[in-house]
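Subject: Membrane protein structure
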Amino acid sequence: MREVYFIKQNKEKWLGIEQVIQGKIKKNPDDLSSLYINLINDLSFAQTYYPKSNTTIYLNHLSSQIFQKIYKTKRVEENRLTYFFRTEVPLLVYQYRRYLLYAFLFFILFTSIGVLSGAYDKDFANIILGEDYVNETIENIKKGNAVGVYQSGSTWGSTIGIIFNNIGVGAKLYIYGITGGIGTLFALLSNSVMLGSFQYFFYDYGALKDSARGIWLHGVFEIFAMVVEAMCGLILGTSILFPRTFSRFNSFKRGFKDSFKIFLSTIPFTICAGIIEGYVTRHALKMPLVVNLAIIISSLVIIGFYYFVYPSIVYKKINNHTNDAVL
């Protein structure tokens, strides 16, 4: 079947599904399940005969939206906060998973730029990190205390300041997405280049191992959350630039609603990063190496599982339950 005829044949049905998703037409759970199965059949047909077509992309997006509609209609009552973190956010992350990949690719690229810049320009760290910070850190390295900068101030005072500062950085990464994602990428570039030059600076002074023992205690949660916040900014920007079949305003509303929920999910990790930085990082070089590694690896496993693995598990679980209900 030619694609034009396929679209013409099903266009009214798809537009009707859009109205259901937008809440303009009410359907009971059984009718929603029937629509979902019908749409999945159309998607399978499109993937087979028009794999690189915009029609396939559109149907994939539409099916993910009605899938969420079904589950929200069928789900059992549970604590709203628990549902938010256990189900709603993972489903959204799964739906927008390619944006998480894009954010990480940009992060790796920009961080590499920071490393290379530091390697080819010895004054680059002074420009990015500031001369006072660089000079203080060099003195600390000479004293055998590469993470000395984290030992200043009180624990609780440092923790509060760090948390609010990191939440502010994350908010900028997200909100700047309103520029079509350009502002988000610029903010990610700035922070990633700083990180790359920062790490190369310690490498250049032979203190990379000691710095890593301290910095990545809190850095795993902090940096990973930063990348997810950039993901949210990209989602927001894309909703403005590419509204698909929705009006630009409705697309923006949907993009803002979904991305804001994902952004909120990063706050607990940001708070944990601030607490670790304020209370634990200052003792990094006094701790047994095995303890440092345990904290770093466990942090990576927790946040990596939540954003990379768990969304797929939730999606498959809910999808199986939905199919069982339909059958």
